[in-house]
Amino acid sequence: MDPAAAKAVILHPVSLVALLSSWAAIYRFVYMSDMEERDASRALMLASGLTMLYLAAIRFLSSAYATLADSMDQNWLRAPYGGQDDLILGAKVGPLLVGALVLRLEPSKRASTVSPHKRKNRSRSASLKGGKGIIRAWTMASSHRGRGIGKELLNEAVRYTKDKCGKDAQVGFAQEHAHSVMVLPALFNAIFRRNEARAAKALDRSVEEWELNKKKR
């Protein structure tokens, strides 16, 4: 079960109101129904059962993320146009891998239409000139977020793209990146949309910093 998805459902106001209202109903109609003989054991049993059902529903809603993660295998990292496979940038703290970024370098449309015979006579780096960098995934371990490690991954993705595709190469998130698929009902997706917006702003800052550093050289 994806922790972020589960948290989004558990802490959503609609979910909390529904759960608290159900508890209140049990208290009102079961525990308080008989003022002389309050059935505490029955009320507790119903409340516990309701809570278990609540958690099971959340697990069911977020379980699709596990299926989605399983589909992102080596084939997902291969470029459909016959180009080079995606590049995985990693961030480690000691022996522990705490962050990863999947970068795809797409050649320019002109380079992709070159005949196979001519393409063999050109180096891979040359064929990427005029291309762009597409970030297909970017993630950090929750225990290491807020330490600037994710920003360093973005900076490296920008630097690598500019080195391989040219200083004017664009770098952006793929429209269908790893976190773009929303498996939860639309009601619970607001937090993921906000995360997407923050990621886009962070990438814009990395590009701006690269351009400023380039001018200083």
TrEMBL record:
InterPro entries named among the record's database cross-references: Acyl_CoA_acyltransferase (IPR016181), GNAT_dom (IPR000182)
A molecular function (GO) term: acyltransferase activity, transferring groups other than amino-acyl groups
Keywords: Membrane, Transmembrane, Transmembrane helix
Family annotation (Gene3D superfamilies): 3.40.630.30
Membrane-spanning parts: 12-31, 43-67, 87-105
Keyword Transmembrane helix found: yes
PROSITE patterns per the UniProt record, alphabetical: GNAT (PS51186)
Protein name: N-acetyltransferase domain-containing protein
Source organism of the structure: Claviceps pusilla
